[in-house]
Write a structure and sequence with these properties.
Blueprint (H helix, E strand, L loop, with lengths): L9 H18 L6 H61 L2 H8 L10 H21 L1
Helix pairs in contact: 1-2, 3-4
Length: 136
């Protein structure tokens, strides 16, 4: 008996398996023992469910492992920037205008901005960050 080619649900595969075993047993003359037929069918279905479950669990574990490895890589990369960030935050907290220009003073084109532009940028982004924190 050939399996159906267009089934998409696990139930369809199980039904096909049950029918395949039943037809095979009947044509081979083994249909007289209904109890054995039921046991064989139940065993095959149980094996199919076990195989599908193990495959799903393995796939989930592998995907989780990959996600954790990527998260660790991102965390390691972020950790490398912590000393520089701490230094910049300290300098900004000191309120030294020249240091603010050095830290925040380049625009997207790479040109230095005026102290006033840097202060406006700092206050604008600082307010945004505080508003976002308050929302969460």
């Amino acid at each position: 008996m050939v399996p159906p080619t267009n089934f998409s649900l696990q139930d369809s595969a199980s039904h096909w398996l049950v029918m395949n075993v039943a037809v095979r047993n009947i044509f081979m003359g083994e249909g007289s023992d209904e109890k054995q037929l039921v046991e064989d069918t139940a065993h095959l279905i149980e094996k199919q469910i076990k195989d599908a479950t193990e495959s799903t669990i393995s796939s989930t574990i592998e995907n989780s492992k990959c996600a954790i490895e990527r998260a660790f890589a991102v965390a390691e990369e972020a950790a490398q920037h912590v000393p520089e960030i701490k230094k910049r935050v300290f300098l900004l907290q000191q309120g030294n205008k020249e240091q603010m220009v050095k830290i925040l003073g380049r625009n997207q084109k790479g040109n230095y901005c005026s102290v006033k532009q840097v202060q406006e940028q700092f206050h604008r982004h600082g307010r945004k960050a505080m508003l976002q924190r308050e929302r969460h």
